[in-house]
Amino acid sequence: MNELLLVILAYLIGSVPTSVWVSQYFFDIDIREYGSGNAGATNTYRVLGPKWGTTVMLVDMVKGIVAVKLALLLPQYADSDTRLQNLQIVLGLAAVIGHVFPIWADFRGGKGVATLFGLVLGVSPITALCCSGVFLLVLYLTRFVSLSSIFASIAFPVFILIIFNFQNDTYRVFAIAVALMVILTHQKNIGRLFKGSESKVPILKHRDRRRQRRRENAS
């Protein structure tokens, strides 16, 4: 019963629609009616700017971390790392489901990548840091958040199964499922990437201007 209550609480935490509330309270709009129509940090970044996009991303990550840490409220799990880790994964997934289908926002949420990252950060910080390194590298090279998320998600099971070789079977299956879920939830983005119509985040503008000037001078 205690576990069920924590799962419900984790879902409610994940259901906090950060981008929706920020857009409504500070800008009197619904972020889901602008840009890509997604209630996530990336769309917030595009529509409301880097300040609010970063804020939304950090809060959504914290939702995943807090959900995972709820497991510490049950001391009977403290004597087994595997049982504790399994419970943390369940609670984190409840938060991700809450983010994707938030009860506080008509069940229309985001894709859950930031909250999922918070989950991994809470369960295995070193793995989360490695995945974030992959994300930042791909973002630096391409400026596509969607592509960066996909590569980071694919790197996740590689780290879990091969590099760090975690022995928890539940965690190993979870890592593979995460990669598949991120790819599936980014089908539209993948289509736009192939068509060349995917939006880039406006970072590294000075670098892009220098490259543009070099190309113009070379021509």
Give a structural overview.
- The mean pLDDT is 90.
- This protein has helices spanning 2-14, 18-27, 41-48, 50-69, 81-100, 113-123, 125-142, 145-163, 169-185, 187-195, 205-218.
- The chain has 219 residues and is an all-alpha fold.
- It contains eleven helices and no strands.
- 73% of the residues lie in helices and 0% in strands.
- The protein folds into two domains: 1-111, no CATH class; 124-219.
Poorly predicted runs of 5 or more residues: none
Query: Helical segment tally?
Result: 11
Structural class: mainly alpha
Could you tell me how far the N terminus lies from the C terminus, measured between alpha carbons in angstroms?
70 Å
Q: How many structurally independent domains?
A: 2
Number of strands: 0
State which percent range the strand residues make up: under 5%
Largest sheet: none
Q: Give the H and E element order.
A: HHHHHHHHHHH
Give me the Rg, rounded.
Answer: 19 Å
Shape: globular
User: pLDDT average, as an integer?
Assistant: 90
Helix content: over 70%
Keywords:
11 helices, globular, 219 residues, 0% strand, mainly alpha, 73% helix
Task: List the topology elements.
Layout: H1 2-14, H2 18-27, H3 41-48, H4 50-69, H5 81-100, H6 113-123, H7 125-142, H8 145-163, H9 169-185, H10 187-195, H11 205-218
Helix pairs in contact: 1-4, 1-5, 3-4, 4-5, 4-6, 5-6, 6-7, 7-8, 8-9
Short recap of the structure:
It is built from eleven helices and no strands.
